[in-house]
Please model this.
Amino acid sequence: MMLRLVGVSTVLLSMTGVQASDWPQFLGPTRDGVYAGKDVSTTWPSEGPPVRWRADVGTGFSGPVVVGGRVILMHRLDDRATVSCLDAENGKHVWSFDYPTHYKDDFGFDNGPRATPAVVAGRVYTYGAEGMLFCLDAETGQAIWRVDTAARFGSGKGFFGRACSPLVDDGRVLMNIGGRSNAGLVAFDAVTGKALWTATDHEASYSSPVAATIGNGRHVFFFTRRGLVDVEPATGRVRFEHRWRARIDASVNAATPLVIGDLVFTSTSYRVGALVLRVRGDHAEKLWSDADTLSNHYATCVHADGHLYGFDGRQEARANLRCVELKTGKVRWSQDRFGSGTITRIGDHLLIVGENGSLTCVAASPSAYKTTAVAAELISGTVRAYPALAGGRLYVRNETTLFCVDLSE
Model:
């Protein structure tokens, strides 16, 4: 396969380490949709916060990441899967890397990549819709290693191509591959790309894994097409599996599991709903489950003070925005027909980017639904990719444009 590197800048900011204000992977630094910075305003004028810059981008639902003053985005330009690095301050081009792609969405939605890159220790990890896993140098965009996971492990295309956002944990790149012959889950050496272990025969879902320390053990949770799997990341040993999927074949699992202490929340749509498990070593006990409480179609919930905030219902039917007690499943409030989108928690507030391009700030309070700011149509078009929040600025994309929105106080 031909590799091509274009437009390397002569002046680059060091990206060897993640800073406090960075957003280096899907769902942020702690992979739970939480922004720890104190520099974001939760109110803004009626016309919305200012857009600092815009940049033309290609197709795809891959979200941006921000590290060391650089924005990295994977998208498709013509027939090239492209990784672009931009200056976070002004959107100017720094470097690009690309390779050929022939992926075609069978449903006609979008022919671009779905997975969000991860930046760790000066390296960028990307995963394309056709299953190409790349490791790039974050300074220059040079390819360090690659693995054609579809060819090597025999993974299927699925409904919408491959879409696992890489998780890098303790020197391993952990992926929901969906390969044959016990290669449903695969760990790769982050430095060399060598396959370290494989596990399960599960097909891939559209959910990305999350790692957590519970008790004295390190766990990585995969929400596969079949259900929730707890794996020991160092060895690939499966601690437990819990089947959680719809009976109909025309369904997907897409939301990332959420770990709060020793509890794991996961949810899917298609009349399956929410599940909370309590992890006990190599086992788990069900705390509660319900099909009608909090049914996530594709967006991951966030947690605040013992409560879950997320979208209940199918995207095409205008989902409800809900607050649910984590330990009981009790619905505290529901804002009906709110519409779909993504949620990022900022302290005791929720920043909601609607699929229709709206921007809403809501108090993360179980007592009632209360907005503190609304921008009805900040961004035109359809917004489905997860945004990045870094240095008080929101980086969000639609089908053709990447926006930098200034939310700083």
